[in-house]
Recover the amino acids of this structure.
């Protein structure tokens, strides 16, 4: 059980239970990543505009920056030198230097935006909105606008960087984009209201979370990216939030309403774990699952879904009077 805190800590500080056991349980296991993979930095996103860079080994915040507007999406450069933040309702893409905690540039698109995904080489950023805008990250300017389905939301880039998959929430489809052509090359019907999308680390499978309006039933659709055909649909519970795949491709995690669905990809069995999450993510080559839970960020072990540790976001308001409300955790992806 997490004990009640007895004093406010300084603004923006993130307290790791691994270091301060009075704020929660100690980690049950040591951190394990793939051979040669360093323990990653986690970029914790607050919907109210803040980004905190968390050292997941030391349990300390390295830097924090306020982008000044509500955030709907974010992506991290492969070398970790830039975080690209989507201030969706403001129609702005903000570039942040996470090493020093400063905003380095902005693009004002004039249209409402949603989510973001970065090419593995770090040179192209793809952002959903009325369509998909393509940004050259080297000098931060728009280079293309791609027409996709209606009200695109979730977006993911294949590990080899050749294809982009876009969940179109208002017409029940997924658009496939060719990154070399910056154009749509296929449309895949999946049904429901597609919300989020993830590609397996080996690129062999695409998973899309969708929502049925009538009863909020959530489904996961498996797409074969070689044929652009649906392999199967799987009901997972109520809700259809963010999706993440373990490095070995054996489990798919889906954020639901007040819980998480864990899909075993070999048996299609679904296990549900009770966690009220806003978003979830799995670092490259890492067995841990990071859960953005508003006031906290919780870390689970994907081998058995036990909680390893919980980081508490202290001092509820920043200098502008906005509460830190973790909605997502993003990581730098490995170059292809």
């Amino acid at each position: 059980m997490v004990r009640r805190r007895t004093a406010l800590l300084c603004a923006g500080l993130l307290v790791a239970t691994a270091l301060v056991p009075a704020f929660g349980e100690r980690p049950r296991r040591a951190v394990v990543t793939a051979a040669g993979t360093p323990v990653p930095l986690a970029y914790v996103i607050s919907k109210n505009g803040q980004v905190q860079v968390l050292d997941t080994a030391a349990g300390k915040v390295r830097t924090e920056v306020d982008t000044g507007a509500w955030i709907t999406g974010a992506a991290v450069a492969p070398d970790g030198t830039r975080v690209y933040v989507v201030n969706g309702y403001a129609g702005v893409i903000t570039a942040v230097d996470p090493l020093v905690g400063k905003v380095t540039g902005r693009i004002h698109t004039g249209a409402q935006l949603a989510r973001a995904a970065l090419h593995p080489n770090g040179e192209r950023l793809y952002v959903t909105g009325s369509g998909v805008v393509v940004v050259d990250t080297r000098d931060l300017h728009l280079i293309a606008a791609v027409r996709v389905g209606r009200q695109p939301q979730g977006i993911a880039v294949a590990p080899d960087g050749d294809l982009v998959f876009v969940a179109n929430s208002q017409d029940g489809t997924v658009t496939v984009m060719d990154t070399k052509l910056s154009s749509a090359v296929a449309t895949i019907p999946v049904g429901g209201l597609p919300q989020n999308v993830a590609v397996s680390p080996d690129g062999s499978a695409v998973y899309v979370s969708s929502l049925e309006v009538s009863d909020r039933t959530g489904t996961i659709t498996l797409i074969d990216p070689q044929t652009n055909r649906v392999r199967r649909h799987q009901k997972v519970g109520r809700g259809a939030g963010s999706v993440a795949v373990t490095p070995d491709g054996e489990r798919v995690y889906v954020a639901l309403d007040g819980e998480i669905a864990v899909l075993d990809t070999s048996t299609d069995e679904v296990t549900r774990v009770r966690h009220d999450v806003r978003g979830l993510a799995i670092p490259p080559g890492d067995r841990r699952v990071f859960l953005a839970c508003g006031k906290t960020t919780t870390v689970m072990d994907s081998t058995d879904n036990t909680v390893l540790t919980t980081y508490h976001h202290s001092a509820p308001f920043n200098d502008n009077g906005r509460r830190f409300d973790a909605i997502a955790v993003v990581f730098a992806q490995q170059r292809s």
About this structure: The CA atoms of residues 152 and 168 lie 4 Å apart. The longest strand covers residues 229-238. The chain has one domain: 45-54+62-279+321-330.
